[in-house]
Amino acid sequence: MLFDQFRLAVDGLKRRRLRSWLTMLGIFIGIAAVVSLIGLGEGLRNAITSQFDFLSADILSVEAQGLALAGPPGTGTATPLTDDLAAKIEKVSGVEAAINRYMESGTLEFNDRQQIGIAISMPDGDHRRIIETMLNVEAEDGRLLKDGDKRKLVLGSRFGQDEMFGKGVKAGDRVLLSGISYEVVGIMKRKGNFFMDAAVLANENVMLDDFGDDGTVAIIGVKVKDPSEAGRIKEDIEKLLRKERDVKEGEEDFSVSSPEATLAQLNSTLFAVQLFVYIIAIISLLVGGIGIMNTMYTAVIERTKEIGVMKSIGAKNSSVFTLFFIESGLLGAVGGLIGIALGLIFAYGLAALGRAALGVGLIQAKVSLGLIIGALLFSFVIGTIAGVLPALQASKLQPVEALRSVK
Amino acid sequence: MKRATIIKLKNVWKIYQMGDVEVKALRGLDLEVKDGEFVSVMGPSGSGKSTAVNMIGCLDIPTKGAIYLDGKNIAHLEESELAQIRGRRIGFIFQQFNLIPTLSAVENVTLPMMFQNKSTAEERRQRAEKLLTMVGLGDRLYHKPTELSGGQQQRVAIARSIANDPEVILADEPTGNLDSVTGKVVMDFLAELNEKEDKTIIMVTHDRYVAEHADRIEYLKDGVIVESKEKRKRMKRRFLNGRNHNLEVRKN
Known about the structure:
The complex is a heterodimer. Chain A is of the alpha+beta class. Chain A folds into two domains: about 1-50 and about 265-405, no CATH class; about 60-260, no CATH class. Chain A has 13 helices and 13 strands. The longest helix of chain A has about 45 residues, at about 260-300. The mean pLDDT of chain A is about 85. By secondary structure, chain B is α/β, with parallel strands linked by helices. Chain B has one domain (about 35-60, about 80-240): 3-Layer(aba) Sandwich (Rossmann fold), CATH 3.40.50. In chain B, the strands form two sheets. Chain B has a six-stranded mixed beta sheet with strand order 6-7-8-3-9-10, with helices on both faces. In chain B, a hairpin with a 2-residue loop joins strand 4 (about 65-70) and strand 5. The longest helix of chain B has 17 residues, at about 180-195. Chain B starts with a strand and ends in an 11-residue tail after the last helix. Classes of the chains: A alpha+beta, B alpha/beta.
């Protein structure tokens, strides 16, 4: 019975093919927007989260702010941090270690080709382990640096691929970093983080020797003993630096941030964007639903006589209701299906286009099964809700009056 | 052999409100139809003949009075019960054929069975094909109404009307949209249903020759019966043949 009604409903939709399509347009534009934008947003959120893989609640990072020229983080600022600050920060209560981290950009030459690389310093001893944990680095090929390594480098995963120099660098190869020859002892595992994947790790003393020491550092990495105290320690460090750098509160030319806080802020921004998308989508689906309702009312009026005929051959009110209800639900569900298909094409297509244009793997679409099922259900529900009133009107028609109708 | 009364209208009134005017379509109509009888209802337009038939067919309810179907008053039943009666015990044939345009002949005939939900799709299809073959449309089973002539469409409608093997067939001007030749074919089928299948038929018509097919002709004017004309020969023939001798298209 239900199956037959389903078939009748499909017949009903087919006979006004163009109108059915136009009605579904409203739904599938809405659903396509939801699926593609949320899919892209989710992908973006994942990509951004992956940039924060030294994400841990016990790490704070101190950077100078101000005029930012192109270059690695913390460099090119008006008033760089000085290398004596780390020792002072380490004295703040609750701080386990404050580590100077130097960064320099330079040209990396291999196989007669040059690429820009960002050299990052690795300190000796216990601090090395802290930084390694912070950066979460592992060797894919060869090994990581150890104390006493002279003119040895560990390269980010991208340098291990052919695309950078026409041929991938392997452990044991020699490269030129800003004109000086180094031995590569290891290639890092891919992290999906564009900064770390293009990083060049060198021991701190080697970097200071080869690039010169001007007494400034890029970043001071701070490890706290108890993550729950991170907030208090952050304020203490800020107070200390205001004094050291002689700036007033509110006019800081530095920042103390925890990756977690930054990520939370980014997440809330993304959330706001997604909320906006949701609202737009819901409005468009609402309009789509009204479109369905309109179409269904027209269908009921057009088929008044048929409804009369059906009643005269024994259709109950409930049968007539079900028929129109299914039709309406189908408009929603089919619209939803097409919308999902379009949304997937948009999301993955745009992401692929973005990757091709920017050449980085940062932009990924991620459409979850939950999103797909949710979108389908939602469109079906909109269709059925929009169909209730018209279907009710159809079912309540008086048989004799319906039969008398001209149409 | 005395036949039982299957339909009885007793003092039936139907009053419509059309704007400010009160239209009295039926004014105390009395009518009795016996099981297996073929009754023609004639009368000028506005005489209330269609209204009367619609009442019997449970499409409309009277303002006043009683309508008995097999002794049960159906004048004040719920819509769902009325739908039940329409579906199982009454078959309708309309002047406009009233087939569903998107459905094939077989599907149109299947529809009343579908609404009863008592048989499988396959059983329904088989019965629909058998009924259509019976009305001479065995080669038109899967044609849409638009691909059929008026006479053929009305034959599909006849097949549809007996899909659930009802006791009563109500025909409202069944030949009204047909030329005399195709009209005669349709009337022959109706006569056959009455004679061989023993269906009770009540037919509204304004065509004297068409009305002649019936056992009895009732003339309506201003919502009451003004004249009744009994014919005997057909009754006799049926008595000779006996009842229900042809069970071929009966269900089960």
